[in-house]
Hints:
Chain B is an all-alpha fold. Chain B is built from ten helices and no strands. Chain B starts with a helix and ends in a 5-residue tail after the last helix.
Amino acid sequence: MRSLVISILLISFAVIGNVFALNAVSLEREKLRKEEGISLVMPSAVARIAALEFKGIFADIIFSRAMTYYGGKLIRKEEMTGEEWDWIYKNMALATDLDNYFLDPYYFGAMNLSWGANKVKEANALLEKAVKYRDWDWTIPFYLGFNHFYFLQDNEKASFYLMESAKREISGSLIATLAARLAYQGRRTENAVIFLEEILKKTDDNTIRNSYEMRLNTLKGIFFLEKAVAVYQDRFKKQTEGLDELVAKGIITAIPKDPYGGKFYIDKDGSIKTTSEMR
Amino acid sequence: MIAIWSVASITFKEGIKNRVIFGIFIIALLLFAATTVVTTLFMRDIVKVAVDLSLSTVSFSGLLTLLFVGVNLFGKDLDKRTIYMVISRPISRSEYLIGKFFGLVMLSLTVVVFLGILSALPVIISKNFYYYSEARFNWLIFFLAVVYIFVKLAVVSSVITLFASLTSNSFIALVLSLVTYIIGQSTESVRLLLASQVEKIEVSPVVSYMVDAAYYIFPNFSAFDLKTQAAHGLSISPSYILWTGLYAVFYITVAVAIGTLAFRRREFP
Amino acid sequence: MAIISFDSIIKDYKTGFRKKKTALKDFSLGIHEGEVFGFLGPNGAGKSTAIKILLNLIFPTHGRAEILGKGVGDKGIRRFIGYLPENPYFYDYLNPLELLKFAGKTSGVDSMKIQERTEELLNTVGLWNERKRAIRNYSKGMVQRTGLALALIHDPKIVILDEPMTGLDPIGRRHVIDMILKLKSEGKTIFFSSHILQDIERVCDRIGILVNGVLVRVIDIKSEPLGKPLEDIFIEETEKAGRAKE
């Protein structure tokens, strides 16, 4: 009887101690992780051999690990460094080397590297690989076309990828028209608005929709201001001094708000920009 | 024929009643349940992740069954001399070995059929949860991949049969079978690596001959791995099925035949 | 005409690199149809080796063993042999019904006959009530009795038993003796090894004494009365062989 009581006491003591210790361990692990930062990415050739027949699962794990890291940064509201973006890119490249058809890393990498990190080259490298393997998926050449058009201002390439996308798209949409319109110069903002509206139509994920809607609204604001500037120049035959001038002269009633919280301004080359840089 | 069939069925019965099988089934069911939870962490290619996980579960469970139950079925016969009750009957050593091989095949078939059907559940659930319009999935290819898991396990069974006939110790047979599985899974990737990076790294001809030799000696298990194809609904040509099927049959024939040659002169003191 | 014959058999075992042990030295013996032959000898004398050669479990280094006029390598003859190994071990997740079905099927018995024989044999060895329990839950004696049923399922002409009494209690031993006598009355040939002298003396027609792989003496109990206890003869022969070796 006594030994039973002692055993129970010992077990309860140990269980409580265990919970305390584990909590401390999680804190220590957290510190360790912060110091660790980003780890090395395994070379694809090695990973392909090491993964045996479980390449698909390996791809899933590598992708979700990078996504978790990125998500953690977002939650802590920390800026991603260039080095970290490189790490994200390498992970996405590895995940798609393990499973050439895996959409999520292509998509995640391409979207965040272009808009978030200004690493359009890397984003396009991923998308080009995706175009090759996911040869039925119209969205990939569509995004690639958009990147060429919007970030690289290469309308010829953009048009080429949009035509590819139009070929893959079954239901009728504006993609083919958009491809044709890109032949004209000087309608960058307007085309970008059409692009984004098209993307929004096909996106049902709410977080992604929100980010696109924000971009779209910003672009709409820029487009609205560009038109106003054109009217001003037409009417007064001179350059605008600033956006306030447009309101002062009664061309527009107010300067639209940037959903990203930045301020619109006229750059030296005369184009409309925002201080938030849509980030 | 009666001899082979009787040995196969008694091997199967002994294997299926083993408690380890029950444990493996429980693990597989837990993994299936985990699959449905894990898939929700992904963005678009959710069905792909579900297919990856559930097919890998089937394959892994089959492999565990063969390595821990299948090898042991040989091991007990040879270590504890259960084989006396078999070959003191009108059964030749070759018939014993072939029967034993088919017993392992029946065991793999049972595991694959049972778990293969269950593996569709997490896929159905995740498909209803979210199905991205540009994802591709096809049940035919999914179940073809399940059939190929069985084909792969049949080849593993033949390898186990071969090693059990060559070695006197079931632990050595287990280790050799496991090593063969690992090498067989990677020879294709290693060969591709050597072929693609010739300019970057200097590969001595000896190494590349050795890799080529390994490629032909060890079974190329990558050929039976259609999990990626199942995950993305990629089509598989009839000629692929024909040639991989023939490859499996030839490999099994060679392995079991060499096994019977070695076993024919084996003594059981 | 002998139903079982060993003809100048030598059996060497490898015990290490270039080392060997000779288990049987120029061993010759013929056993006649319908007789009960007891094989006597100290542990390690080579009794099991001789029996395993008959079942083709091991191969003689020299010489030839025959059963029913055919070499022991011919698997067809094993249909007529019932064999009980020393310390038998069976598939332990199965029950006797499954084991007997396997044994009967492979020995060419039809299903109806298997059912009939199974019930009869399991009743004789006293396992009928335990027939649905897996062997892994059996005691050593029960396993031994299962082995006996397995050896007899196909009503064999020749019954070869390797140490059938080991591990049995006196009642179990009595069962085995009764069974051997019953088989003998049915005209079967029985070849068994043992080191329990009284048992051998009671049931055997002839006794062979094997010492260090050499068959030192064969006694026909029926025609030549022993004159002194078998125990004395056995010890005498063993010691004689020991001296000869020195």
